[in-house]
Amino acid sequence: MYKIAVLVSGGGTNLQAIIDRIADGTIPDTKISLVVSNRRSAYALERAASAGIPTSVIHPKKFETPALFGEALTRVIAESGAQLVVLAGCLMTIPPELIRAYPDRIINIHPSLIPSFCGKGYYGLTVHEKALERGVKVTGATVHIVDERLDHGPILLQKAVEVLPEDTPETLQLRVMQQAEWVLLPQAVRAFAQGRVTVKDGQAQICPEEAE
Ligand code: GRF
What we know:
By secondary structure, the chain is an alpha/beta fold. 35% of the residues lie in helices and 24% in strands. 5-O-phosphono-beta-D-ribofuranosylamine is lined by residues 8, 10-15, 44, 88-89, 109, 111, 124, 173, 177, 181.
C-alpha cells in the first residue's frame, strides 16, 4: 500500500479530488496516511475527518525556532509512513528539514503554467487576477517537484485552460481547478504510486503506463 501525506491550508478541493480518485480506484493501492494543516480552521481538515483520515495541525509560530518546526513537521509525516508528500492548497513555507527527508518526493499544485505567475505573492486568487490583468489567453495549472525555492522545482505535469473574455478571477480560478488542478494532482499521485516518476538533472518525467 502506497502511503501519502497531504499538506493543506484552505478549502481542500484538491485533497478531495485525491480522496475521490483513491475511492474510485483511479489511484491504485494508495492510502492518505495523514493530512496536516497550519490552520485549525481549514475546511480541508473537515474533508479529511469525513473520510476517516488522521489529521494534525502544526503551526510554525508555535515553535521556538524554524528548525524545531521543520523537525516536528518532518517527524509527524515520517511517522505516518508517508512515502510521498503532496502540497494541496498549502500556504506553508516548506522547511528544508522536510525537503531533505523527502528528496524529489514532495509535489505541489500551482494554479498557473509555471514559470508564469508564480513565486512570492502568487497564490490563490491573486494568480488569476494577475493573469487577467496581463491579458493572457491561456493559463492552467502545474504540478512540480518541491525544492528549496518557491514554485521552482522540476515540472511534472501541466494542463492548459482557456481564458474567456467574460472571466472574472473567481470564474477563472474555478475553471482552472475543475479542468486542471483536480485532474493533474491525482494523475501525479497515480504516477508516483505506480513507480513511473523519474527526476534526473533537474528534469522530471512520467513514464507512460503499460497497456493493460
Ligand atoms: C487553489 O487555487 C490551489 O491551486 C491553490 O490553493 C487554492 C485552494 O486549493 N494551491 P484547495 O481548494 O484548498 O485545494
